Structures
1.
Amino acid sequence: MLYRPDNFNDFIGHKSITRFCLNHIFKNTLPNFLIIHGSSGVGKTTLARLLALALTCTGNIKPCYECEHCVSAKNSVLANNNGTSRILLFKVSADYKGESTKEMLQHFNTNFIPPTLNKVILLDEAHQMSPQAQDLLLIDTEFLPTNLYVIMITTEILGLRETVISRAIEIKLDTLSNNELLLLLKKEANRRNLIIEQEEYTFSAIISWAENKPRRALKVLEAMGENRTLSFSRINEFIDFVDPSMFIPLVTSLSSEGFILGIQSINDLKFDNLTCKYLIDFLIDCIKIKNGAKKFNIPNKILIQIKESIKNIDIKLIARFLSGVSKHKVLSRNLLISEYLRIHPSLFSSIEISASSLLDEETRIKTLSSNTDTVSALEFKPKSDLENIQRGAIIMQDLPPTLENLLKWQK
Ligand SMILES: [Zn+2]
């Protein structure tokens, strides 16, 4: 089962919100109607449940985890997804219409509990309520008993009527910071007795892949089980993380005089379909960076590095490279080299290389060398220097070719 923290100490992130709520619970001044919203997996349900525990606790420190209600709530609400007599859990589904809403609203009273005790109603997926149901709810939330708390949880606050939102206190949970997630993953790895090789790097890969959402990140460790030593590559089989900074030399060399650096960096890529997908993502991100976009799904450290590296590269060059590579369904290393050379401004602006002829050639070579599925430029015996260059195989020959020679070949 996916781990959910059962106390505020283990609830990582959202510190100021937590402090705000607990302060008000302590002073008995928390508003009776809250809406907790934010994208999925950021901790909304966990926060709502922990707050419900604090609100219904009869101990001095809230939640105390020792009073009668805390003990029963810990076992049912936190551990088993069940309500208690004073914490009611509702999950709204799309077919939640008037009748079921009326039924639910019957619980919006505190008739059967002493006025000194609180009751909490948690409405998960609240945006799924129909507009009519929300109208009904509005009537009932106008005058909530002072010891009744209603907490709505939603990923889509825009699915709620403005009148409902205006009546509640909105609590927005953002995704966690890299440091908070790092802490979370370390704790979880510890709890599972997992030893992670290259820990910092592996964790930052998980964080990037999980888009900084704790639930998504924790699921990776959950999938790894317990009591094991894990390598980065083992975890990477699960998350398919490719460090985008490996493409930096490829793009930065577009503006340089020589193209050797670019071809070398293509040679260094561990080439598979996955790499191609990430290269295209990377080029799109470069264009977004150039256009001043703000949101990226890249670890911050790497993003800064990319921004700095490509600041002198013409966006048109990147776009042309992207247009070249993205037209291939499968991008082999050789095709990438030819696309790279095709757009390199210092050399090949006018040489047109037919992609299909390269593909044909590659297929031919693959059939010849049956016991390996990778074809390197080395195995290819070029017919002419020009063909050699077109295939990007020049790196294996005398380097670098002079511009005059290249122009001679062009004729
Ligand atoms: Zn308690």
2.
Amino acid sequence: MSYHIFAWVKESYKMEDFTLARVIHIVAVVLWIGGVGMVTTVIIPAVKKMKSKEDQIKTFEQIEGKFALQAKITTLLTGLSGFYMLYVLDGWDRYLDYKFWWIHAMTLVWILFTIVLFILEPFVLHRLFKKYANENPGKTFAVMHRVHWILLIISLITTAGAVAGSHGWFWV
Ligand code: HEM
């Protein structure tokens, strides 16, 4: 009898931990992907309209520089809470089932942003951006805008698939 009570208490703590991980996961995703949406649909279009390239580069670097730190923290929190949920669910074999394409999509989006934020941006992209924005600001901002749109659309499809899938709506 007492064994059952202990097992029940242990299980309910696990449930609460799982729910807490889900809460952290979603708050982090909202702040992170919401920020990507803001940069893509509002900030880059506004910067593109600025008259001088000096203003364009300075404004974009200031805004994206601040957002980069926030995105690094939220990406980290999303990954930690996501892998913790998979561990509690013991759901690693979901990676072997195409029905769980949204688990693959979440992991892929996370890997993409992690590589961009922690490796490419500080070591490569920042330097390239400065060089090309000085040489040809119109083309540089156009390319950057397109890349942001692609990342935003993939992230939104992933978010929609993850909500539907984790609430039992499988499309395939
Ligand atoms: C390493 C990366 C990630 C892992 C391991 C991961 C894992 C998980 C797991 C295990 C769940 C719960 C599934 C279930 O209840 O059956 C979940 C839910 C969810 N995740 Fe992720 N995730 C990751 C990244 C992301 C990213 C990048 C996004 C958004 C672009 C995202 C958005 C969501 C959403 C919206 C839910 C649904 C929550 C709900 O409706 O209750 N996740 N994730």
3.
Amino acid sequence: MSQMSTAPKAKITTPMKSKNVWGDRLNTPFKALGEHIACDLPGGRAMFFTRRGGVSGEPFDTLNVGLDTNDYMPAVEENRERVAQLIGIARDHWLEVKQVHGSDVVLVTEPPAPKAKKVEADGIATTLADYAAVVVTADCLPVALIAPEGVAMIHAGWRGLAADVLKKGVETLREAGATEIQAAIGPSIGVCCYEVNTWVHRAFMRYPRGTARLSNHAHLKNVARLQLQHAKIPLDMVHDVDICTMCAPRSLFYSHRRDYGADPKDTGRQASAVWRVADDARDDD
Ligand SMILES: [Zn+2]
């Protein structure tokens, strides 16, 4: 268990440098890494990928990492390989779950068996060095939890948030020994675009009107902030990149709500990953 108190020494790699597509849009601690977004916090790094830089054809163009989509799977595999290259963590060291819009968060403290079947859950916490927790989204919130003792990546849509998936994520990371946790909310649907029916509003009745519930819209990012605050993470430790997947340019993000046709599997998924990084292993980028 000594591993839980020692941060990994692995050197992090710097993905390709290219034109900054973000302009001055990224707020600290988020920063551009090529056409993607990185967020360094004490204990780890999160990366929130766009849909750019992959090989998939329309309508999955181009960096679709969703295995449960109607895309050509060899293209998805190649895209995943590219993400692995960019984060510097091979695919057999990715920790993934079968996402089911629930609130279970798994804690991984031992390297999983090769080809282990994915469990149904919506978050992965880990103390392992050189492993990345990865979720895929297309409007739902990818939320990274980072602490010097471990990291977690959570997939949080309205159902997961209503079922307290972020609270579970924080509790799970605390079980792993984490004390000072910071959170990073990646690109996801904003209140601007998230018009909902009364069912969704009802799911958030315990959150204040005007903050989480606004006329016929739901503010999932505010729900996330409030849920993290209830889990005793101070608000200044919660960082939101504040980018909406639906009204950002189509070439940047998959948006289930914007793009889905008859079959939801016709929308691609972008990747979000988090892994442990010792402060003395960071390079300048
Ligand atoms: Zn929007």
